Amino acid sequence: MNVNSTDDQSAIGELQHVSDTIHIFRDRDQCIDFLTDSDNDKACMIISGALCQNVVPLTHDITQLQTIFILSREKDKLEQWAEDWPKIKGIFTDIVSICQAFKKIADRFEKNTVPISIVRTDENISIKSLDQLNCSFMYTQIIKEILLTIKFGEKHIQEFFRNSRDKRIDNEATLENVNKLDREYHNQSPIRWYTSEPLFYSVLNRALRNMEVNTIINMGFFIKDLHHQIQQLHTEQFGEHHTNNFFTVYRGQGMSNIDFDQLMNTKGGLISFNNILSTSKNREVSFLFAESILSDPNLVAILFVMMVDPSKSTTPFASVTDVGHFGDAEEEVIFSMHTVFRINDVTSTDENQRIFQVNLTLTTDDDKDLRLLTNHIREETFPDSTGWYRLGLVLLKLGQSHKAYQMYQVLLEQATIEGEKGPIYHQLGKAKFMQGEYEEAIKFYEKSFAIQQQSLPPNHPDLAMYYNNIGAVY
């Protein structure tokens, strides 16, 4: 693309309304390097018809590249050639059509990448150490417990939007959208925002999927607001004055072969959806989505069938037909983060043997296995610590010093009182010590020590810890 041409600037602007993560390359090798260096992210490549026959053979087999769109006015000349390259999902003559196709791909990706944990319950969970447990299950349980103890205010909302602006300073279209959302945030409910706005659902999903602790902290206010609204609707819809009969919801999605094999070997076990879980009362809507996965050779098409008994579970879930973005079109029911189901069985669907139906039952409040697992994680993850400090201690305990460092940096930016910074500097020093960056560790330890000296007498026993840590570095 020529970023100086009026047509291409217009095309870039259209794409920025769909995604705020756009990278433009004029050099083929730079594009290839970018794709191969993207560890966690999946990419969609849009390329001109003039370059596609040169670039596609070199990039097609890169794992991170999921989809290729070709923009060309000579569609007829390229169609036969494109049939040899499965990742090419379309040849388009205008950018508007590409944006529409890209939005469908992006929505499918979000649905297929909700982080899940599959846990066997035929083993003695209580004797397992933290590093033997499923990390995603553990982290989301801790995050949920932490969020419910933190008091968020307007300053946290403004910090989120300020950070969002900083990340999009070179993206005029999405920067304008962030400013609009900042102005209108209090005009809509959290569920409405989550079901309609990529800045909330896409960023949050990615953060929980990749354990981006800095983003999770910045979005803590929103996760808690979302949980509370689901909880409020749950009380209104399934409270003691309502008839609480069994009902069934559905969810179509793709699953990796590794996760599917684990699922097949864990019948009778537990499965946790470690994000906000979107389902539908309409089986056909969910089945059609599962059916759309069949064209992807890297995924197994799954139709989850979830039995729910509201009278035996206080897990927050609610119909969002009246408050969600899609209205009654999808009959959407959403569950709060870290909802756990029991795996009953797995069979092929009647309509298509390649689509697997996974029958689940929402766990009850008296589920022995879940209670044992939850309590074990709580006991092993510093239950006496409060707020985000608890998550930081867990990350350090598990050797995740880089994530812990990122988290404490965010807490340092949020600290407004000098006394709050002392413990944070101390933990930053620990993280740097674990990384072998001893000079940086000493700097943080000394900053922490200086703050503590101002509030403690010279002979206070707590100061001994600071002397010991500084001495250990030397």
From TrEMBL:
Transmembrane segments: none annotated. The keyword Repeat applies. Coiled coil: none annotated. It comes from Rotaria magnacalcarata. The lineage of its organism: Eukaryota, Metazoa, Spiralia, Gnathifera, Rotifera. SUPFAM superfamilies: ADP-ribosylation (SSF56399), TPR-like (SSF48452). Keywords: Repeat, TPR repeat. InterPro entries: TPR-like_helical_dom_sf, TPR_rpt. This is Uncharacterized protein. The keyword Calcium does not apply. It comes from the Eukaryota.
